[in-house]
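Continuing the batch. This is chain 6 of the set; chains 1 through 5 are on the previous pages. Same settings as before, nothing changed between runs. Recording input and output for traceability.
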Amino acid sequence: MDPVYDMRDMDEDGAPDNPGSVLYRVPVRTGQKDNYNLGVGFSATWSRPLDKKLQDQCKEAAAANIALMQQQTANKRLDFEIARLKNCGELMKQGIYFHPKSPYYKVCADVVVTNPGGVIPPHVHSIPSVSRPSSTPESPVSSRAEDLGAPLQTGREQTSP
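Output for chain 6:
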């Protein structure tokens, strides 16, 4: 509520008779009122590049950069997998591995070690048969040293000092 002051000048001397005295109060008008508004708008933009060649080069460069990044990622993944394979294989050869209930067991679960001793399976040796003279009847035991395949030494063997 705003005060309305007494500005009357009854004796007409140019000064108010009761300055500062409030005659009455009036409500303040703020100008606020309920306002309901609905606005609908539409906007469209159309642009055309002036240099299509530059736009095509930009697309080609972006595609080449994406292909390069994908190849680098594939190379890093391959390096990781080869290092994992090598380390897991070497540890398995030494008999070192994670317990099957360990959460890290699956890190090396797909690594297979074949030929851990350096022998290629199947590994077979053939033993040559010894030819026997036809005059001697076949016997399961040979009495001659030459039939055993070792060099025959006669005399005393020398030992190294």
